[in-house]
Amino acid sequence: VEQSYVMIKPDGVQRGLVGEIITRFEKKGFVLKGLKLFQCPQELAEEHYKDLKSKSFFPKLIEYITSGPVVCMAWEGVGVVLAARKLIGSTNPLQAEPGTIRGDLAVQTGRNVIHGSDSPDNGQREIGLWFNEVELC
Ligand code: ATP
Ligand code: MG
């Protein structure tokens, strides 16, 4: 079954949005397979976002993701990767539709509250990167 790595970024945790975000995924009907609060080390943030290494915003992105604890989640279900991206909304929260997490809860691209894997392959890759096997059900 398809799985997506979804992560509430430090601003989402700090702003108290964890419960609301988990509720949206639960209500949609996906199955939670892993969940933890975690202070991300720099090297892991860089590995996670390695495809963006050449971007000018990369150092700021790493600073952002490591600025406080994140909530790491593995969600499972048919079509979960694309569906999670739809629940999350566009990268720029000002372009994200109302009703999406970013559309309802954020205004800045550099503080956009949540991550979701962009393909099933990356879902597997990222879950392997952020979780130990014993942490997954
Ligand atoms: P994510 O991978 O975090 O789910 P995404 O897939 O919507 O987001 P990506 O293009 O993968 O978008 O960018 C990863 C993250 O890098 C974005 O979520 C955002 O936090 C940050 N980012 C992307 N573009 C910019 C930008 N132009 N300026 C600042 N930060 C950016
Ligand atoms: Mg992405």
From TrEMBL:
Residue numbers annotated as active site: 115
Catalytic reaction(s) noted: a 2'-deoxyribonucleoside 5'-diphosphate + ATP = a 2'-deoxyribonucleoside 5'-triphosphate + ADP; a ribonucleoside 5'-diphosphate + ATP = a ribonucleoside 5'-triphosphate + ADP
Enzyme Commission number: 2.7.4.6
GO BP annotations, alphabetical order: CTP biosynthetic process; GTP biosynthetic process; UTP biosynthetic process
Segments forming domain Nucleoside diphosphate kinase-like: 1-137
Alphabetic keyword roster: ATP-binding, Kinase, Nucleotide-binding, Transferase
Positions of ATP binding: 9, 57, 85, 91, 102, 112
GO MF, one example: ATP binding
Root EC class: transferase
Swiss-Prot/TrEMBL cofactor(s): Mg(2+)
Family classification: Belongs to the NDK family.
Protein name from the UniProt record: Nucleoside diphosphate kinase
Originating species: Zostera marina (Eelgrass)
Portion held of the full protein: 93 to 229 of 241
